Amino acid sequence: MQAGRSGPLTIIAATAGAACAADDGSAGVDAALAADAFVEVWATYVIETGRHDAEISGGAADNPLRGFQTVAGRDYRFAFDGSAAYVITAPVEPADQLDWNKLPGLSDCGTIDLAVDGAMFGWRWRIDVAPPMLEVTAYANATGVHQTPPAALFALSAEELASDAPLRYRVWPDGAVFQFAVTGTVGARAIDVATTLPRACPATPALDFKWAAGLYFGGTSVAPSRITGRVSERGFVRRAPP
């Protein structure tokens, strides 16, 4: 079972540097910026049946980010919907239902292949538990080695998926680690989680050349049904630590 790759988007635009906002790559989590500070311009990722990669509907050249970039991280809101409750009926390998799919992320260490070096959030629909649920985790590759924390960061129920509630996702390289953070509310439940995973190139600066990938299915198998998700992205901003 292939642990998964995050490939280039079907739509590519060179917008290097357009989404970086006054960030030297050394600061901590920006707790002062609330989720409602986002400009409400939404695009839609669409993964068609039989595909790994997504196309973009709506948005703008820098919302969501795509293609070649020189940015310090990614800062976006993403809303899953009921289409994320997929079932793989003809897996390439038997355990493919448990493969991690990918949310938008960035390559690292001067490569454009996130499967070699890069960071993103992983997501999957669990049908092996009752009731079924969607899990989200931190996911990074370091010289081709796939990394996740011991447990998923959080999970969403089918009812929470149906609410189409966006959460704020942030991922960035920070010295020897990637930083991951997710905040927001789904219904009456607050989500505020963070973790780190190792980088392969701690000396490579945060503003090094990168590839910005989008929503991706797999893992090994392709999407068994049409999968969509809303995204709103802005320039990456962090505040200096106290």
Task: Give a structural overview.
This protein is mainly β and 242 residues long. The protein has a single domain, classed as Sandwich (Jelly Rolls), CATH 2.60.120. It contains one helix and 15 strands. The strands form two sheets. Strands 3, 5, 6, 7, 8, 9, 10 and 14 form an eight-stranded antiparallel sheet that branches. A seven-stranded antiparallel sheet has the order 2-1-15-4-11-12-13. A hairpin with a 2-residue loop joins strand 11 (167-174) and strand 12 (177-186). The model is unreliable at 1-36 (pLDDT under 50).
What characteristic shape results from the CA principal axes?
A: globular
The CATH class, by name, is Mainly Beta
CATH architecture: Sandwich
Strand-residue proportion? 35-45%
The whole-number mean of residue pLDDT values reads 86
* CATH topology (fold) name: Jelly Rolls
List SSEs in N-to-C order.
EEEEEEEEEEHEEEEE
Give the proportion of residues in helices. Answer: under 10%
